[in-house]
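Quick one, T. Sequence first:
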Amino acid sequence: MHSYRTHTCGALRAEDAGNEVRLAGWVHRKRDHGNLLFVDLRDMYGITQCVADSGSPVFKILEATRPESVVSITGKVVPRSAETVNDKLPTGRIELVAGQVSVLSEAAVLPMQVAGEQEYSEETRLTYRFLDLRRDKMQQNILLRSKIIAGIRKRMWDAGFVEFQTPILTASSPEGARDFLVPSRLHPGKFYALPQAPQQFKQLLMTSGFDRYFQIAPCFRDEDSRADRSPGEFYQLDFEMAFATQDDVFNTIAPVLSDLFQEFSKGREVTKPPFPRITYADSMLKYGSDKPDLRNPLLITDVTEAFKGSNFGLFAKNIEKGAVVRAIPAPGSADQPRSWFDKLNEWARENGAGGLGYIQYKDGEARGPIAKNLDADRVAAIKAATGVKDGDSVFFACDKETPAAKFSGLVRTRLCDELGLLDKDKFAFCWIVDFPMYERNEDTGQIEFSHNPFSMPQGEMDALLNQDPLTIKAFQYDIVCNGVELSSGAIRNHRPDIMYKAFEIAGYSNADVEARFGGMLNAFKYGAPPHGGSAPGIDRIVMLLAEEPNIREVILFPMTGRAEDLLMQAPNGVSLKQLRELHIRVVEPKPAPTVQAGTAEAAPKA
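Structure tokens:
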């Protein structure tokens, strides 16, 4: 018999009754019934109930053993009586009568319980992450992550991609988020950077003659935490294709994602390829976001003309100053009490708006303060434009185009939640396409890149030479699912002449481009194929499939929102010897000056 176990804690069934077996695992829960002591023994495969009577020599050993101690129990498998069968467990028709017990590791008093559903603070959970990971929910999330990654790999191999590993120590990038820097011992005063993404390396692979690359890539960015973004590091399905158009990328990766989600969807509907394509302009107009949640059926409409020159002075005057008006329908809400509308109005103020105007279409009439200040034709035009009917309401956002879009998107989401319209039983995918290549900085007036500066402009050199830069679209796209951006991607600018011109429009000289991106640019001068790709986030994919609202629930050892690893106590200080080896010195930030009582001058910002 094996020293520790002959079976796992999820393996035994009714047909094993009568066999002598040995199990090993953690003491999950104990129940003392006087003459009988029941012990639930747990490993990653399941739970088996073990039992010892008070006359057994192992009774006192198990009685004294704390929860989460690791033990090995040898005994005979017996069927449970009919009234004690537990159909919720695969092992629920048998139990193990303990004959021998070996305590392999005694647990101290627990700072948090593993058994049960008790909630603990993030600080406690991350400080004792090894205990947190023993809980069933966390075990299932992490195992799901492993299965999803395995499923991705198989599908990418089947699609003809080859997996490569790109460098972790690389050069600092002047674009994107902040880098994590690594000082060089051999080159004093110089630093490596951890890659924000393998972007340049995967493009270099295409110039090296490889056709289809992928990698489950670790990426490092010194940026703030969000519910769907872990600070410090994350993983992505990084892939690139040579001789590929935008359609080629879409037709290749959409089946991979759709099929993957179908496997792990638990019966929920998944968008089948081809995914809907929504232009960036339409997405901002109709959904108020460039990552729309298509499970929400509400569509935003532009109704600026209906208010232009109207008697509703607040909107009319703002329109003269360049504002637009967006309308968000609220089906079936016209019969809501006044308090419901007042609550939404207060919510709008809390979110930085002046309020939230509305029209109720009820009993063949238009009601509310806005309707009273609009003539019948304008009220009817709004009704027709938004597609609402009697019994519905319409809410309005009035502002400059970008803030109006963002706020109307918030209203759309809030109304969907208030009215219970979200279809929670589906994964709704779409592509967002035709992102603007450039935008104007409102503060400086300068033309800047809107998103990825390495995207190929639609129209290529002709567009750069002959179009207003603000009208040029890029071959750039996002993959969105249920309102979560899984990835940005693009058909790359692989031609040096187009790259020089694209950067020139944004104010960069040829020398600037060569200094910043010389490695990749030099490679392109020796023959580069047209290529493109994307990089869906692994953590976000798992978060969606696990139905978790926070990305930390699907990462083994995440950091806190302040980028701290409470378990390993990182970041931490290092010795003077280590600093000297790296030729660096720590300069502590100066404390902010204190303000004396009675003075009007505030301390400057750190």
